[in-house]
């Protein structure tokens, strides 16, 4: 499973990548971009009909283009609209959670402070999307 992490905070990138590696799931490949605009460009650069990622972990609060903005743009982009998006953010605001779901996110996950909680949450999340969800079929 190829995961695109969209996160502007380098400490959070390191923490999330370390936690994903600590899940013990060997089938994970992690790509990282630092902004909402870079996320859209990442998908735009893929071949027509192909999806360069199987799952997007998207931060909500980023400079320039926020996670909300990415969600708004997502449905208009064929390469993105079938890819599950998980909001991975420090926000716990009920209005932010509601707005993310209204804009089409698949899961909202508040970043836990405890590393083991983060590892277990990410393991469950990846297992869910790889085993239970229907992911886009990669083009050949």
From TrEMBL:
**SUPFAM superfamilies found in the cross-reference section:** CheY-like
- In the record, 4-aspartylphosphate modifications are located at 59
Coiled-coil positions are none
* Segments forming domain Response regulatory: 2-126
Keyword terms, alphabetized: Phosphoprotein
Q: Which domain of life is it from?
A: Bacteria
Q: Which GO terms describe its biological process?
A: phosphorelay signal transduction system
One Pfam match, given by its short name, reads Response_reg
Is Coiled coil given among the entry's keywords? no
Question: InterPro entries of this UniProt entry?
Answer: CheY-like_superfamily, Sig_transdc_resp-reg_receiver, TCS_response_regulator
Q: Which SMART domains match?
A: REC
Q: What is this protein called?
A: Response regulator
């Amino acid at each position: 499973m190829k995961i695109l992490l969209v996160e502007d905070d380098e400490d959070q990138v390191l923490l999330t990548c370390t936690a994903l590696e600590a899940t013990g799931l060997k089938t994970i490949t992690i790509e990282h971009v630092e902004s909402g605009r870079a996320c859209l460009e990442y998908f735009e650069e893929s071949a027509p009909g192909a999806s360069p990622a199987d799952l997007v972990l998207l931060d909500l609060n980023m400079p320039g283009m926020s996670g909300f903005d990415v969600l708004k743009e997502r449905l208009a982009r064929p390469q993105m609209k079938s890819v599950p998006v998980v909001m991975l953010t420090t926000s716990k605001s009920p209005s932010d959670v509601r707005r993310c779901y209204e804009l089409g996110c698949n899961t909202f996950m508040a970043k836990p402070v405890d590393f083991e909680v983060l590892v277990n949450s990410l393991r469950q999340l990846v297992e869910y999307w790889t085993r239970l969800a229907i992911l886009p079929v990669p083009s050949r």
